[in-house]
Amino acid sequence: MADIRNNFVGIKSPNPFWLASAPPTDKAYNVVRAFKAGWGGVVWKTLGEEGPPVVNVNGPRYGAIWGADRRLLGLNNIELITDRQLQLNLQEIKQVKKDWPDRALVVSLMVPCVEESWKAILPVVEETEADGIELNFGCPHGMSERGMGAAVGQVPEYIEMVVRWCKANTRMPVITKLTPNITDVRRPARAAFAGGTDAVSLINTINSITSVNLDTFSPEPSIDGKGSHGGYCGPAVKPIALNMVAEIARDPETAGLPISGIGGVTTWRDAAEFLALGAGNVQVCTAAMTYGFKIVQEMIAGLENWMDEKGHQTLDDVCGRATKNVTDWQYLNLNYIAKAHIDQEACIKCGRCYIACEDTSHQAITSSVNGVRHFEVMEDECVGCNLCVNVCPVENCITMVPLAAGVLDQRTGKTVSPEYANWTTHPNNPMSKQAAE
Ligand SMILES: Cc1cc2nc3c(=O)[nH]c(=O)nc-3n(C[C@H](O)[C@H](O)[C@H](O)COP(=O)(O)O)c2cc1C
Ligand code: SF4
Ligand code: SF4
Predict the structure, then answer these.
(1) Residue spans with biased composition (Polar residues) (predicted)?
(2) Cβ proximity of 293 and 261 under 8 Å
(3) 133 near 70, Cβ under 8 Å?
C-alpha cells in the first residue's frame, strides 16, 4: 500500500489532506469531527487581534453557481475572519493539539500591518503548541477595506515586511497564503520567499459577484437589497489555482519553495493534480462544506489506489512530476499534429460536434451522408482543435488521434515531421533566427 504520510515544512500529518482555514475549522467541535473522519490536518479559521471580535452579516453570506444537475460548481462568500473570542479559540486550539498530536494544526492569522500587532499575537499562538502559522494575505472582502488580508497580499513589499516580522518573532514555521486577485502571482510569492517564509499556500478566494436578482436588482447574496463582492471558491476555481501553483513551482526565483495547493479540490484526482504540479500537500474547504467531512475518506482511498496502480510509493514520487511539462506557448511542438476521430458505435447523433465545428471552428464535420444523419470528421479540414471533443455529451466518443511521423496531413498536404520545432524557430516568426537569415 502506498505511503501517503506527509511532511510539509517539518509539519507531519498522516495524509496530505488538510482543511483550509474557513468555517469547517472555526471551532474545536468541527475540527475534532474532521480529525475523527480522517483529515490529516487543519488550518484553523483566521484569528484576529485581541479585542472585540469582528461582526459578520446576519443574513445570507453565500452565493453559488450550479451545473445543470444542481451540483455546486462555485461558491461565493462574504464571511469575515473568526467572529469568536481570541482566548476561546486559543484554548480550543491548545486542547485539540494536545488530544490529536499526530495531526497537523496550523493557525491562520490576520492582524493589522504594524509590527506590534504581530509581536503581540505570535507568542500567544506559540503557547498553544500549534504546528505553524499561516498568514492570511488573501481575504478579498471586509478585512481588506481595513488594510488587512488582500490589501497586504496585493503589495509585495508589505508581504515581505510582515513575513520578516513573523520569522523574527516566532519559532513556528510560517506559511504565507496568497491572494489570486493579482496580475502575476509570482510577485507575492517571491516577496514572501525574500522575507524568509517557509512555504506559500494558494489560492485564497477570487473577487466575484455570482448573480444578480432580476426582480430586486440586488447582487446575491443580498443583504437588505444590497450586495458586495465576495470570494469565489469551489470546483470552478481549480484551473486558476492549478495554474498559479504551477507558475510558482516553475519559477527559478522561488525554486524549492514548498507550496500548499488550495482551490476546488473535491476528489483525490484534483489533489493528485495539485501535487503533480508542485504542491507538497492540499487544503480543502468547499468540498467539505458541500459533502461533509467524510469526503476525505474517498480522497485518501482514491489517492492510495491510484498510487498503488501506478507504482508510486510515497508522495515524493508524485510531487512536482508535472512541473517540468508546464512550458510557455512558444516552446510547444508545432510539428505535433492530431485529428479528431468519431467512434460511430458510441455516437448518439445529437449533432453538437457538427454545429460547434460548423459555426465556430473549421467546418470539418459532416452532418449527413446521402441524406442520412451522419457525423464524421473530414481530415482534410480538421485542424485538431478538439472543440468537438469538449462539446460531445458522450465521453470518449470523439478522441484526438495523433498523426505518426511520415504520414501525410491531408489538410496541409505536408508529411508529418518527426522533428520537434517550435515558434522560436518558425519561419513566420519575425523574431526567429531562421527568419532573420
Ligand atoms: C465561507 C468561507 C470562509 C473563508 N474564510 C477564510 C478565512 O477565514 N481565512 C482564510 O485564509 N481563508 C478563508 N477562506 C478561503 C478558503 O480557506 C480557501 O482558500 C478557498 O475557499 C479555496 O478553497 P476551496 O475551493 O477548497 O473552497 C474561506 C472560504 C469560505 C468559503
Ligand atoms: S477537432 Fe476542431 S476542427 Fe477538427 S473536427 Fe473537431 S472541432 Fe472541427
Ligand atoms: S457530439 Fe458526439 S454524440 Fe453528438 S453527434 Fe457528435 S460525435 Fe455524435
Answers:
(1) 422-437
(2) no
(3) no
Q: Which CATH number applies to 6-325? A: 3.20.20.70
Contact by Cβ (8 Å): 110, 48? yes
- Domain ranges within the chain, ordered by starting residue: 6-325, 330-436
Q: Which amino acid is at 416?
A: V
- pLDDT tens digit at each of 437 positions of the chain: 999 999 999 999 999 999 999 999 999 999 999 999 999 999 999 999 998 898 889 989 999 999 999 999 999 999 999 999 999 999 999 999 999 999 999 999 999 999 999 999 999 999 999 999 999 997 777 777 777 777 888 999 999 999 999 999 999 999 999 999 999 999 999 999 999 999 999 999 999 999 999 999 999 999 999 999 999 999 999 999 999 999 999 999 999 999 999 999 999 999 999 999 999 999 999 999 999 999 999 999 999 999 999 999 999 999 999 999 999 999 999 999 999 999 999 999 999 999 999 999 999 999 999 999 999 999 999 999 999 999 999 999 999 999 999 999 999 999 999 999 999 999 999 988 655 55
CATH annotation of 330-436: 3.30.70.20
CA within 13 Å, CB half, 349: 8
**263 CA from centroid of ligand 2 (Å):** 31
* Residue ranges lining ligand 3, Cβ < 6 Å: 342, 347-353, 375, 392, 394, 397-398
Q: Which residues line ligand 2 (CB under 6 A)?
A: 340, 357, 361-362, 364-365, 377, 382-388
Strands 41-47 and 17-19: parallel
Q: Where are the alpha helices (DSSP H) in 2-155?
A: 28-37, 86-99, 115-126, 150-153
Residue 98 to residues 26, 32, 404, Cα–Cα distance (Å): 17, 12, 61
Using the mean position of ligand 1's atoms as its centre, give its distance from the Cα of residue 205 in Å: 6
- Probe residue for ligand 1, chosen from 205, 290, 291, 293 as the CB with the greatest number of ligand atoms within 8 Å: 205
The answer to pTM > 0.85 is: yes
